[in-house]
Amino acid sequence: MFLTNPVALIGNDAGGVVEARCIRMELGEPDAKGRRKPQPVAGSEFAVPIDVVLVAFGFDPVPIFAAGNSDRIEVNAWGGVVVDANQMTSVPGVFSGGDSVRGPDLVVRAVVDSRKAADGIHRYLQELSPAPARP
Fold first, then answer.
1. SS3 at position 12
2. In terms of pTM, does the model score above 0.70?
3. What is the DSSP letter of 71?
4. Regarding beta strands 4-11 and 17-30, do their DSSP bridges make them parallel or antiparallel, or are they unpaired?
5. Which residues, in sequence order, are bridge partners of residue 47?
6. CA dihedral of residues 65, 67, 70, 71 (deg, nearest 10)
7. Hey, which of 12, 80, 86, 109 has its CA 20 to 30 A from 60?
8. How far apart are the first and last CA of the chain?
9. Cβ distance 87 to 95 under 8 Å?
10. What is the DSSP letter of 98?
11. What is the pLDDT of residue 86?
12. Under 8 Å between Cβ of 55 and 39
């Protein structure tokens, strides 16, 4: 929902999320640079029934710190993790995706990366311990 801001998540006794409380926003007057900052519309609060919350922030990749094998993970010029077609990094068995690979991007692309990584992890683990030969 465009020009909408969540203000609260409501849970149930079982620990699940059941509702997002939101407020409509409108663009304010242009600032010195011409940007119109979103502002809440008084009295426009509403609720949306939900059962899953996916928090997605698009940030530049966090620099990989040298701990364990992480110092061997190849990164590109802007600090993004380099992966193969299976989302595996330069360290065998270590997979990555989403903003750490692509930079700020859509959450749907991070979901695609995670599915590719899951398939890649499955193939990787199968190669490590092949199924026993059948008699």
1. coil
2. no
3. G
4. antiparallel
5. 21
6. 70
7. 86
8. 58
9. yes
10. T
11. 95
12. no
What is the pLDDT at residue 67?
47
Same-domain pairing of 41 and 88: no
* Domain assignment of residue 37, given as a range: 4-49
Report pLDDT for 56.
65
Tokens 């993970």 belong to residue: 73
27 inside domain: yes
10 Å CB burial of residue 107 (0-12, 13-18, 19+) is middle
pLDDT on residue 65:
52
CATH code: domain of residue 90: 3.50.50.60
Contact 104, 78 (CB under 8 A): no
Mean pLDDT by 10 residues, the chain (135 residues): 92 93 95 91 96 72 54 83 94 90 86 95 89 70
The C-alpha angle 76, 56, 118, rounded to 5 degrees, equals 65
Two structure tokens written together for 110: 């991070």
Task: Give the whole-angstrom CA distance, residue 22 versus residue 93.
Answer: 41
How does 35-57 read in b/e, with b if 16+ C-beta sit within 10 Å?
eeeeeeeeeeeeeeeeeeeeeee
Determine contact, residues 94/117, Cβ cutoff 8 Å: no
